Protein 1
Amino acid sequence: MSLDATLLSRLLQRDVRAFEQLYERHARLVYGLVLRILNHAATSEEVVQDVFLQLWRNAAHYDAQRGPFVPWLLTMARNRALDQLRRKSERQRRLEEQTDHLPEVFTAPDYERALDEKRRAERVRALMASLAPQQKRAIELAYFEGMSHSEIAVALKEPLGTVKSWIRNGLLRLKEGLQQQAKT
Amino acid sequence: MSNCDQFREGIEAYALGALDAEERAAFEAHLATGCAECARAVDEARWLVSQLAYAAPEATPSDMLKGRLLQTVRREGQGAPRAVAAKSAIPLWMWGAVAALLLFSAYSAWHARRLDREIREANQRATALLAEREKTEEELAIARREAMIMMDPASHKIALWGEHAHPETLDAKWHKDLGVCVTGDKVPMPSANHVLQVWFIPKDKDAKPMPSAMVKPDANGKLMLLIMHPPEGMDDTKSIAITEEPAGGSPWPTSTPIWKGDVL
């Protein structure tokens, strides 16, 4: 059982120290992601607070048998930050606070276990930096700003088909890069 | 199969949330038919998309955020308020039994609390040991890799010459499979709230310097840094530079290099 899974099982027993350890382990990564999306420190801290409180209140929703914890946490953080970015209405925000808004836990490929958690950031950044500037920008607009293919095509003044290819090929390159890292 | 084929190229975009409404609706209708193959592909694509989070530089939230969170969590962790005991109609002859029961309950509660405390302490000890073991294993793997880079004759040596008021020279060794190892002695500590950050300068003049790892020397000025994933191949890299950057690092250099060396 991984350290995260152990700490999460202790959250079910309302263990505050386990929560503090989970926060210490992942707050910088989550806050960095949310800050990159919102570009505003105070609002980003509100979102991070929301994410960790959801984790505390709904730890049972996470099923360690189904998939790894960190990708699930990052998906929850990204969803909430993008919702904040789109300034959803108060009613929608209330809906989001319900448990069923939490993302589903998803299975990861087998090589996920072989990836060094603390150093995969270097690999992802290097792979992104190796993409052509417009291709990198297209992926960033989709991931960090939640734009659709059509919106990106308009923003970059590029044909829709080109944008689709850039995004797909970029993600497949990221996948290959992570697979290679897992083998080393 | 043919039905899946038409959606295959859009699976990553679906996981990214980039499909336009019409395409998304069509794919979700297909998923609703229970296609296990596409559901598996979506799962993996969601994981892949989540990895893009690592492209964002890590940042440190304020201590106040942690304080607020812990305050809320501690308050909620104290549990539901004790229920008010209902008035009972216990006959007088039963008071003895009730008293014994209360005594037993009090003992059980005390015993349960003690067990709970012991379990919690054991859990914390086990977690600490697990974390320590993970850390040690990781440090060992890094040290082993550093030693292999330093000792392998196939590693390419790069001298990083100090500029300005930094006469000390740092050494970098680049191994095509294992990464780059940067070492140095008597390295001055960066100023408060700053770190040393490594950059790979591409040969292409239009390309931007590629940000890499951050480090601080130890108290004796000794510096040892392993970069496991430098740019692929040395051919496209002109030089390696080290600048002083604000804590947490920068996406582009904000000061002139303190050390710099050509890859050759």
Note: Chain B is about 40% helix and 20% strand.
Protein 2
Amino acid sequence: MRALGLAMRDPTHTLILEEGLHIGWEFIDSLMFEKTRPAMSDASKQLEQDLKMSGVQSGDSLYLPDVYPFLARWAARLGIRILFSTTVSTVASCEKGNVEILAHYGVDTLRIRCAHYIDTMVSATDLGHVRRVWIGGLAIGNDIPDTMPSVEIKPTNHDQIYAITLDVPPTTPYLTAVRKLTEHFTLSAGKKPTFQLLTVTPILGVAGDWVDRTVGNVSWYPYTRTTDFYSAIEQVGECYEI
Amino acid sequence: MKYRAQWLDGQRQVEAVADDINADRADVVVLGGGTAGVMAALAVLEAGCTVIVIEKLKTLGGILSHTMFKYYMGNPGGRYEAHDHLIRDQTGRVAIVPTYGDQNIIRSLANDHVIRTMGGTIIYGACLTAAYANEEGQLTGVEYLANGQRKVVEGAQFIDCTGDASLARLAGVPVRRGRESDGRTQPFSHPRFQLDRMQHRVIVNNIDAGYVDERDVDDYSSAVLESAQNAAYLTRSAYADTVAWSPILGVREGVTIIGQATLSLKKLIINEREKNPLFYTFANVDNHTKDIALESQAVCDWMVALGLWAVKVYVPVPLAALRPKNWRNILVAGRHISVDHDLAAQARMMRDCQKSGEAAGLVAALAVNQGVDVDQVDYAEIQTWLTASGCLPDKPPVEFVDNPPDDTRTSMHYPSTLAGIREALCSNRPGLGILAAYRAHDRPQILAWLNAPEEDLRFNAAIVLALWDDPAGTAELMVHFQHRDPFVPRSSRSYNSPRGVTALYLLGRLGSVQAIQAIEGLLTDYQMLLQDEFEADPKFLTRSVDYQFQYVTHALRALLTIAAHHRTQRDEVVAFIRQFITQPKLRLAVTLKYDTGAPKDMTVAVRHYVETKLNQLQEDRVNQDGQK
């Protein structure tokens, strides 16, 4: 989301390298079902209008799994350039004060040169100041059980569908976290389930208290500073000016 | 001394490196823990060898864990069945919404648990970056990037289950991609998961999303972004809630290796079967494209002349199709085994990918245990293991399995007698009868049927003759083409062509000069085609533009083929084609399967196809003149 916000300012001179298949996926797939403030910028107001007209956003409540196609259309209309399924391996200075990036797409190594490189990624293990790590998911049911106190359960704007999160220690492997979450949904013998697991997020959610950093023409602007949808798009760097 | 190979800026680069590389080691290294990779790892472990699985995602299972949870093709039998049983058992212990097919979350957990419990090692989130080989030219290790660190894994045998031949390409194995005319592969899908409120289960939206060249990051990225904006995805349903998106595309076809043997549709048609199978692929030739005229002659024969799109076929797969040329310790498993584009649509089903993984894992482990190369493992021993698991049936299955339209009560089978062939050719489901007649090569009998009173028999005899490149049935074909015969045979569940289109294709295939005027007339008035009544097919001829598209593209193909056959008519025909294809108002479109949105504009694609063919004609002419 943060990369989109940065690209939104100057789409023609910005290239997003995305490891996954979906823009904004760290935010969306973490299923941060917080209330959102109104959009502030002209560009994000267009997105807000689309989401409200389609019913994905009602008031200050967004149903995140439905956001992605609208986000894709919005990015395409803005002309934001994205390379998907691309993993950055090396960032190094090169001549004329530029930065050379080696990125892997399939077995191909791409060599990309740019004036400024911004890393918006963060993982649970590579940095201090981690505030919280969690596995998320969706669940469905009539009765919220009182048997899973460590699982946070929030309603969504879809009938009977709840966003669930379970905090895990920061070094927990992803599948271990998935297993822990499913253990909370173990069936009791002879009982019909009234609250069922629906999906599990494909990544661990991470929140931290870190701050933006820039050294030369390389910046680290972690995406996780906010859990508010439009704030996530609109937050831009304070240290870096185009 | 070792050699390190990587792809940099689109070029394969090889450099000499020090021999002593700090590396982890296993007997067998499996690249890609997807549909094939999980079964390969299990087979290796069960044969008593060590294995390391290198996977790019955070979970194992590939398509089965992330995109499509229900088997719909491939034949049962094999190691995967016990694994599926375990998944169903585990699913029954969790309060979890059922999926259409086996539960994907439980599958991801079970894949990890079983492989680790059996002693396997799994590396998640790993991006394959380089391959290492020794001076004998055999693979010694692979390098990957995970969590920002590069590491090397060495092994005795390597199984490429990446789906896109990543390891094989690093090793320098030649690959093929897409159809001959323009390099395009099958449409891909960008799957979305929904909660079906009516049936209370998770379903997958699997909408065909167009074509992509996966090797080109720009093309791929544009396709990903465009496919996410499908009209269906931008509309909310009252009965189904979006709950997640697949982290991988549903890719029906990428690259395939050029192996020691290649499976092909042409071989299937002429009944040239591979010996010593490890397993059989089983599906229809599930081509999702509608621009059939731009496909090979074999595809057009299969779909347009024979009308066998939906008929399910067993194709034997030998070890040689899993073995790249010139490498003794690399096997491939999954959709990128050595199969040509025409048959790739048949050899990509999940059960078949699992079987290829099981077979590759077994052969690699037997080779390690016996200290030999994979081609030195005794087939009888492989056969014993694979038959025991059910991967390979005890006896060869019947080649064809009927797959009729829902409203058809008559069954179709491959006739083995002349009387059976005649009966099939007189029916409205003649496909397998035409194929049997084609393979039987009894020309006098076919010529006799060409003059029979039964119209069906005459037309189908003309098809057989045309498939033999025999023009004796030209007059019969002309009648059906000129009347734009709307009759649609029902050999196949779907994708049956109207007889008028079939006749047009075959007239072109024959290089029929006498058809030129009528074909040019059709193209001149091509907008009239939109007024024709036609029998709709929800998967194929959905709208008038689809019907028009079939006639126009087959007409262009036919003229191009005729021009290639006949030098004296060439200049005139080429001039007509150029005039037609360059007209500014030309618009050709086609709908994609299951896509309810606007038809996809194919004008550029058709122009590209025609221009390529015209350039080939010009080159041929220059070469012919040079030879004179």
Note: DSSP finds 21 helices and 19 strands in chain B.
